[in-house]
Recover the amino acids of this structure.
């Protein structure tokens, strides 16, 4: 598996998925012209990574800690669909094995109630407890 590193642009978030460190980052604004074309490879990566993680978690007895950071400033409704799919993939991984410990940090600006509420909505659809981190 390859690490995914996508630089932030005016319309797309920075995305960093490092399966060696088990740290993932989604940061910036998400309103790509081709939402499916942008997010589909990321969703496929999560499917491959889940399969890899299943093998690794059964091979070793120690816990595998995963940290996912969402620090989104804005996302349109088309992006929300794909972001939700990613959150649900993370939820599948969380349910997969007792040795996998998932932590999701939902980072938002103090005055940004829309992003905060979106995090609440995403959390409500999963079994993963989000850590809400307010930036001042």
């Amino acid at each position: 598996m390859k690490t995914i590193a996508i630089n932030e642009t005016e319309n797309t978030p920075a995305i960093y998925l490092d399966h060696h460190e088990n740290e993932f980052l989604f940061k910036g604004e998400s309103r790509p012209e081709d939402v499916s074309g942008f997010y589909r490879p990321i969703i496929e990566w999560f499917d491959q990574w889940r399969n890899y993680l299943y093998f690794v978690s059964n091979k070793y007895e120690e816990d595998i800690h995963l940290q996912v950071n969402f620090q989104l400033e804005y996302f349109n409704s088309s992006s929300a669909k794909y972001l939700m799919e990613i959150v649900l993939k993370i939820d599948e991984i969380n349910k997969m094995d007792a040795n996998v410990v998932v932590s999701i940090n939902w980072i938002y600006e103090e005055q940004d109630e829309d992003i905060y509420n979106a995090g609440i909505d995403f959390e409500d659809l999963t079994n993963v407890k989000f850590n809400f981190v307010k930036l001042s």
Summary: The CA atoms of residues 7 and 40 lie 17 Å apart. The beta strands are 4-6, 14-18, 23-30, 64-75, 100-109, 130-135.
